[in-house]
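Morning F.,

Quick status update on the modeling queue. The single chain you submitted on Monday has been processed. Sequence for confirmation:
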Amino acid sequence: MLPEDLMLLFLDEEDGRVLMDTTSIHNALAGAVLLELVDSGRVALEPDGKTLSVVDTTPLPNEFLQESLRRLTRPMKPQRAVETLRTHVRDNVMAQLEGRGVLSVEKTRMLGIFPTTSYVIQDGKAISDLRDAVGNVALGHRAPDERTGALISLLYAVKALHKVFDGDRREMEARAKEISAGNWAGLAVKKAMEAVQGALMAMMVATTVAAAITTAGGSS
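Structure tokens below.
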């Protein structure tokens, strides 16, 4: 699923090290879950283009997605929907990947005191194949399809492209901006992507402003 692919891109393929900050990862993963729900036909934008609603309550075969769908108890704006879906989202996505045998999750304690989590890659080929497919699009070597277009748009929204791929940051971001505006998906998914991307970018700005205020307050 899209959230699983996105999480794999946030990991170093050799040592399982996380390449992005926790807040950005959780926001992006929640956005990916929301897009999965739209693609499944369970959630859709209302005619005003500003609100997302559950339009089909037929149970989903995947329990993770079904539990996510249950959280959307009323119509809400994309940013609120992302906030609603991000609770425990990384743990749930990691559980999916662990169940597939792609990686294992190890809980340890740093210095014997502080709890920490590490990820051990079990299927390196799955990650390298994914990184090759998405990286080739991000670097302009091939055109996006629905899967790679969505992944790059999500990475672009949380300013993660230069964190997960080597290359000229400015060129990759310009390419990602073009991809985000492209026609690589059906109308429903494309409109939802635009709404989710806008929500993620607004959340990034809010986080940056909050951090700046905190820093300024601490230095006064």
